[in-house]
Each structure stands twice: as C-alpha cells, then as structure tokens.
Amino acid sequence: MKSYFAPASTGNFSVGFDLLGAAFAPKNGELLGDELVIEGEAAELSLRLSGRYVHQLPGDVTDNLVIKCFYAFEQKVGKTLPRLKLHLKKHLPVGSGLGSSACSIVVACYAFNDYFGKPLSDFELLQLTAVCEGGVSGAVHYDNVAPSLYGGLLLMLPESPLLCRPLPWFPHWQVVLCYPGTVLSTKAAREVMPKELSLKHSIRFANMLSRFVSALYCQDETEAFAALQDLVAEPARLPLIPELTAIRAALTAEGIGHVGISGAGPTLFAVCQNDQQAEFAAAYFRQHYEKNQDAMTHICTLATVGARVLLE
Ligand code: HSE
Q: Rounded to two decimals, what is the model's pTM?
C-alpha cells in the first residue's frame, strides 16, 4: 500500500488570471488537499471514495477524475498497465476555487507515475495534468495543476518550454482561505468571462501583473499589495459572489492588505501580514458562513512542497 497527497491551490492569485497560482497548507498542520491510496494491483481497476466532500462527487465512480486520469496516463505512457485498487480521500470541496479537480488529477497522475517507476518526465507529467484539467474546466490552464504538483507560488509560462517558474514570496504572509460551502463550477465561472479585452485594459492587466512580480523580487510589500488587483476575472465574476464587496470592506478596515477570489471562486482569500490579522479574517469568515455545513476556513502558509508520497 502506498499513499499520496497533493495540496490545494489558488489560481490567479487575483492579479494573474490563468498565469499565477499558489499552493497552500494550513498552519495547524492539517492536510488541505486530496489523498490517493494505491492499495495494490487487481484484475480490474477499482476506486473507493471517502472524505469530507465525497457527497459532492459523481455517483458513478467511472466518471471520477482519478479513473479518467488512469486511462489518460496509460495512453500517454503508450502501453497497457496493471489495473489498480485505488482509494481517493476527497478532502477538498468540488467547484470551490481551491483547485479541487486539479488536486485529484495531480495526486492521481503523480501517484501513477511514481508507482509505475516514473515513465513520464516532470514536464510530461505537468502537461498531462493540464490536459486532464482542461477537460474539466473547458480550457487548458496550468495555474492550479502546477502549484499542486510542485508547491510554491508559480508564474505560468505556457508559451515557454519551461511551462512555469517559481516566484519569490513574503515569508511572513499568511493566507486565510474560506470556502463558503456553495458549489460554483469553473466551467460556469469561465463562461461569464469577457471574450476580449481592450488594448487599454490589456496594458493595465500586464502592468499590474508585472508590478506584482517585480515587487516580489524586490520584496517591496507596499508595491505588492498595491498591485494585487484583479482587473480581468473579478469584474465578470462579482455577480456570482456578490458578498465579496462587503467582506473586503470589513477586512481591509482592519488593515488586511488584500481580499480576492481564489481561482474561479466561490472560495475567498485574505492576504495577512501577521497572526492578529489572520485570526481576525478567519473569525470573520467563520461567522459569516457559519450556517453552511460544508463551509471551511483555514489559516495557511505557502505550501512549498507539492504532490508527494505520504506513506510507503
Ligand atoms: N484560472 C482559472 C480561472 C482557475 O480563474 O478560471 C480556476 O480555478
């Protein structure tokens, strides 16, 4: 038996639509991400499901991403592979903005590659996860799969053979992630996006992203917070998450530097500079969404390690 884990991720990080992504881990040591156990080989491929959010998964196991990833992995490797007895522990909510589908895809592809003796290079593995994720969200984008696979805050480079590169971070930053408990599919949240941006808008977007990246390299926190603006997705998605405006006002009034939409939402994230801000944001989020049983809030730090073996 061998068990694998991949962390949750925040696509876009507000300022980099489809181009920035970060993996996060709760400060209290809990695992926020999906776990896949390879229980052994068997005559037929099988998948058992458990975990807090198992009720949000399709009833028919053959529709599960882990099974789809097995066949996609087999096709990419180009030979028939032994069938496996699998167990997915679904700890991330589906359609949450926490990179839930990417997380299942990454943990599955990483696990298969490790189990079968690494037939795919890191590059091929990342490509495979992005193609599988594209099948779910309707477009190939790396900003969830890459951080879930590698950890850290990453800049996507889809037109470079590198595909992505790690960025610096502010080591004292804490990110409070709050999933409100409602489902919003990435596909639906992409459908509301504008099909084109004006020249003026494109230049502002490029400027904010480059301003943020430059602030990270210079470790200029004031500039980083000033640049954390979502000029592309948020204007289109705000009607899907209207409470963001009031929550942002309440948290920024406490000195919290940024509140944004994690990935395609509805999860929100608050970037905090100390324990006091993080505790305040977490308490505020919990109180706001306490009525929803599926809601969850975590105070996180950057997960510097991505997909990995949990148990040999
Ligand atoms: N960049 C993607 C989007 C992330 O915002 O649609 C999806 O989690």
A: 0.95
Q: Whose CA is nearest to atom 3 of ligand 1?
A: 264
- For domain 2-167+304-311, is the CATH number 3.30.230.10? yes
**Ligand 1 contact via 143 beta carbon (within 6 Å):** yes
32 lines ligand 1 (CB under 6 A): no
CA-to-CA separations, 46 to 126, 127, 170, 276, in angstroms, rounded: 24, 25, 43, 46
Q: Which fold has domain 174-300?
A: Alpha-Beta Plaits (3.30.70)
The string of pLDDT tens digits covering residues 136-176 is: 777 788 999 999 999 999 999 999 999 999 999 999 999 99
Determine the distance separating the centroid of ligand 1 and the alpha carbon of 82, expressed in angstroms: 34
Residue 312 CA to residue 117 CA, distance in Å, equals 14
What are the boundaries of each domain within the chain?
Answer: 2-167+304-311, 174-300
117 carries a ligand binding annotation = no
Which amino acid type is present at position 200?
A: K
Q: Is 96 annotated as a binding residue?
A: yes
Q: How far is the CA of 141 from the centre of ligand 1 (A)?
A: 8
- pLDDT tens digits for 268-305? 999 999 999 999 999 999 999 988 999 999 999 999 99
